[in-house]
Write a structure and sequence with these properties.
Helices cover 42% and strands 23% of the residues. It is α+β, with helices and mostly antiparallel strands. It folds into 3 domains: 190 residues, Jelly Rolls; 50 residues, no CATH class; 56 residues, Homeodomain-like (Arc Repressor Mutant, subunit A, Orthogonal Bundle). The strands form 2 sheets. Strands 1-3-4-11-6-9-12 form a 7-stranded antiparallel β-sheet. A 5-stranded antiparallel β-sheet has the order 2-5-10-7-8, with helices on one face. The N and C termini lie far apart (54 Å).
């Protein structure tokens, strides 16, 4: 790392910062999280290493504090989860003071104040989820409107179970930051990862909708599933999300997924990819090699990464896209 010099990654919406001073760290927090004050007891000697990725309504950052520092925010405007990864963090939260280690996550809801005291050489993952996005995710999963804010617990154990699994997903996002060829920089994958983080949190911690969310799901009826299938076939190049398809079908995301499994035999996004691959194959078989390229066809049908398109194409059809194009009479 180059000390003190921020670096902007090439992928849209993704930012990576090297080691910065306390003033710069506060600026980063203000920009990507919420307005805070940062009191560094070691003054100018305090360094904060910041690694951060922003995927639409989701921000995941890893902060390492060389010296002691205190973060204070009068009121949150989003859902926020702090997952310590090293050392101790003291929190003044919900009328009580608690000390947390990497075994426990802290949760702050919209309207909550934040007061976090970081000991020297402590580190944490900071997850910010826009209020509207998390509440819309829950409503889509349930298939009906909800009353927010969601009553997430003020803390939860990361030792085992779904919460431990969710924390591993957050760590994966952080670990992938340094790899510029990572799938997280592909818009389609990033969107799915974002949705997985949101739905994973809702499934991992208790709240008033949790029991309903984990009840066995009923598959959507064939006629409704057909509406989603027709939408995909009409516009396979469109960047559909599972939530959008659920709205089209008029059901919850879970009912859509179960309906696709039962009536189509594939998950919605798998079916979308299959349709795209078939349309791409048709275009390559009809195309003139002197006038079109594999890349042009791949991009036309919604594949942003040529290498992964070629791999999926070969797996599906047993030959490369370029071989199909060259075989054109």
């Amino acid at each position: 790392m180059v000390d003190g010099l921020p670096r902007l990654m090439s992928a849209p919406g993704t930012v990576y910062f090297d080691s910065v001073d306390a003033v710069r760290a506060r600026d980063v927090l203000n920009r990507f999280y919420h307005p805070v004050s940062l009191d560094a007891s070691d003054g100018e000697k305090t360094r904060v290493e910041v690694e951060l990725i922003q995927l639409g309504p989701l921000t995941v950052g890893h902060f390492t504090f060389a010296g002691c520092a205190t973060l204070v925010a009068p009121e949150m405007d989003a859902y926020h989860v702090t997952l310590p990864t090293a050392g101790e963090i003291r929190s003044r939260h919900a009328g009580q003071e608690v000390t947390v280690t990497p075994a426990t996550a802290l949760v702050f809801r919209p309207g909550d104040p934040i007061h976090l005291r970081h000991e020297a050489n402590s580190a944490e993952l900071e997850v910010r989820i826009e209020r509207g996005a998390l509440e819309a995710e829950l409503a889509a999963l349930l298939g009906h409107p909800i009353d927010g804010p969601i009553d997430l617990p003020t803390s939860f154990d990361l030792g085992d179970g779904p919460a431990h699994s969710w924390s591993r997903l957050i760590r994966l996002l952080h670990e992938e930051l340094e790899h510029e060829s990572s799938l997280i920089y592909q818009p389609l994958i990033a969107e799915q990862l974002c949705s997985s983080v949101l739905s994973g949190l809702l499934l991992s911690v208790p709240h008033r909708y949790h029991d309903e969310l984990t009840l066995p799901v009923t598959a959507g009826p064939p006629r409704a599933i057909r509406r989603a299938v027709e939408a995909i076939n009409d516009e396979p190049e469109r960047n559909f999300t599972v939530g959008e398809l659920a709205v089209i079908a008029g059901m919850s995301v879970r009912s859509l997924q179960e309906g696709f499994r039962r009536h189509v035999g594939n998950a919605p996004m798998t079916y979308l990819q299959q349709v795209r691959l078939s349309r791409a194959r048709d275009a390559l078989r009809r195309g003139d090699p002197a006038r079109i390229t594999v890349a042009t066809v791949a991009h036309r049908w919604g594949f942003a990464h040529l290498g992964r398109f070629a791999s999926a194409y070969r797996q599906r059809f047993g030959e490369s896209p370029s071989a199909t194009l060259k075989a054109t009479p």
